[in-house]
Amino acid sequence: MLQNIVIGQYIPVDSPLHRLDSRAKILCLLALAVIVFLANEFWSYTALVTTVILFVVLSRVPLKFFLKGLLPIFILIIFTFFLHAFFTNEGAVLFSVLGFSVYSGGIEQGVYISVRIGSLVVFASLLTLTTTPIDLTDGFESFLRPFKRFGLPAHEMALMMSISIRLIPTLLLEADRILKAQAARGADFAKGSLRTRLETLTAFIIPLFVRSFKRAEDMATAMDARGYRGGEGRTKLRVLKWRARDTIACIIVAGVGVVLALLRDF
Amino acid sequence: MKSFDIVIIAMFVALMGVAANITVIFPFLVIAGIPLTFQPFIAVLAGAILGSKKGALAMVVYTIVGLFGAPVFAQLQGGPGIFVRPTFGFILSFIVVAFVVGKIIEKSRDPQLATYCIAGIVGLAFNYLIGTNWVYGAYVFGFDAPDQFTYTIVWLGMLPLFIKDIAFTIAAGIIAHKLPEFVKRPVVGTRVQGGS
């Protein structure tokens, strides 16, 4: 079970979206997250849905991966839909159930809000589905570099991100090992009152922390031994390049924003 | 920043990821269908052990790693789509939690067990203040929730979780107080030049 956890969601296929610079994609996502909220009537929502479909087709990522991203949000969408269907009292009464009247305005609003949340999630999934975690971290670092003069450790943060992603499976295995070791010594984590359970849990947490600190120490020593000295003057194997297509992508997203702003009902 | 600091902060980020999904390891922690998480517990410990600045930095990195798609949030979720969830405020609040807990312990000259516990509870209060208000705000502004969705309803929904977190926080305080005797501080480690 622990081995089945997939870190990152990147789908390695070749598409126009995959080839874009990660910085361009991050910028576009930030812009789209605002643009989504511009839509507020039928035609602007149609334009929004068209954009979503276009981008999904362009990404060449199989549809099931988007559905996987939408699944956890599905309950939220259903909840919001019913919240609106039952409590927004606008338009004509469609029917009544158990004293609640469902209005056409409520259904309309429910559909719109669901589309809004859905598009946001799909846009967000597009970023992680088409960009490797390494590229994202690099893009993030280059965005933060200007803030270095204000004391923001851009390079260190990017390094921490890479290390922590690597450490998650290690820690899960470690936790599993400690659990088995303590069970072999007779620890039962599943029995007793809440108080005794919390007390038994320390038999798990203390070793986990001790081992984590030990591992961190070893790793830091290894870094020092190899002459790690921070981001200053450090070169990269893969360098991000801003190309013409990245500028075009940004212009397209800005265009979508303008179209939605024009269609929007004020 | 020393190499050790970089690695230990990354370690706390990974610990947050594991704590959020503790039910993968301990299936019995799913109570009444709701998987419990240990995130506030680790956030409090990050502040108490790493200090205010590094603890808060660990939580910032945790949030970014999660937004970039690593499955470090509860139920192995990750990716920028999390931002849309009404509960995202809780994740953001961990930054404040770690900072506040660290600050309280740094300010006290001789931190006792009680100091750790009080610091943890103050941190937890920030956790819920920010998280719950974010949930309410998300529904009102993001989802255009109707007027029947009141502020009181949101707080009532948080109550059962709050009771569980109080217990965990006190446990965190006790462990944070005990831990330094188990964890030897590193003696080696050169200062990184050029880093801040």
From TrEMBL, chain A:
<protein>
    <submittedName>
        <fullName>Energy-coupling factor transport system permease protein</fullName>
    </submittedName>
</protein>
<dbReference type="GO" id="GO:0005886">
    <property type="term" value="C:plasma membrane"/>
</dbReference>
<dbReference type="InterPro" id="IPR003339">
    <property type="entry name" value="ABC/ECF_trnsptr_transmembrane"/>
</dbReference>
<keyword id="KW-0472">Membrane</keyword>
<feature type="transmembrane region" description="Helical">
    <location>
        <begin position="70"/>
        <end position="87"/>
    </location>
</feature>
<feature type="transmembrane region" description="Helical">
    <location>
        <begin position="45"/>
        <end position="63"/>
    </location>
</feature>
<dbReference type="Pfam" id="PF02361">
    <property type="entry name" value="CbiQ"/>
</dbReference>
<keyword id="KW-0812">Transmembrane</keyword>
<keyword id="KW-1133">Transmembrane helix</keyword>
<feature type="transmembrane region" description="Helical">
    <location>
        <begin position="244"/>
        <end position="263"/>
    </location>
</feature>
UniProtKB/TrEMBL annotation, chain B:
<dbReference type="GO" id="GO:0015225">
    <property type="term" value="F:biotin transmembrane transporter activity"/>
</dbReference>
<feature type="transmembrane region" description="Helical">
    <location>
        <begin position="6"/>
        <end position="34"/>
    </location>
</feature>
<protein>
    <recommendedName>
        <fullName>Biotin transporter</fullName>
    </recommendedName>
</protein>
<feature type="transmembrane region" description="Helical">
    <location>
        <begin position="151"/>
        <end position="176"/>
    </location>
</feature>
<feature type="transmembrane region" description="Helical">
    <location>
        <begin position="55"/>
        <end position="76"/>
    </location>
</feature>
<keyword id="KW-0813">Transport</keyword>
<keyword id="KW-0812">Transmembrane</keyword>
<dbReference type="Pfam" id="PF02632">
    <property type="entry name" value="BioY"/>
</dbReference>
<feature type="transmembrane region" description="Helical">
    <location>
        <begin position="113"/>
        <end position="131"/>
    </location>
</feature>
<keyword id="KW-0472">Membrane</keyword>
<keyword id="KW-1003">Cell membrane</keyword>
<keyword id="KW-1133">Transmembrane helix</keyword>
<feature type="transmembrane region" description="Helical">
    <location>
        <begin position="82"/>
        <end position="101"/>
    </location>
</feature>
<dbReference type="GO" id="GO:0005886">
    <property type="term" value="C:plasma membrane"/>
</dbReference>
<dbReference type="InterPro" id="IPR003784">
    <property type="entry name" value="BioY"/>
</dbReference>
<comment type="similarity">
    <text>Belongs to the BioY family.</text>
</comment>
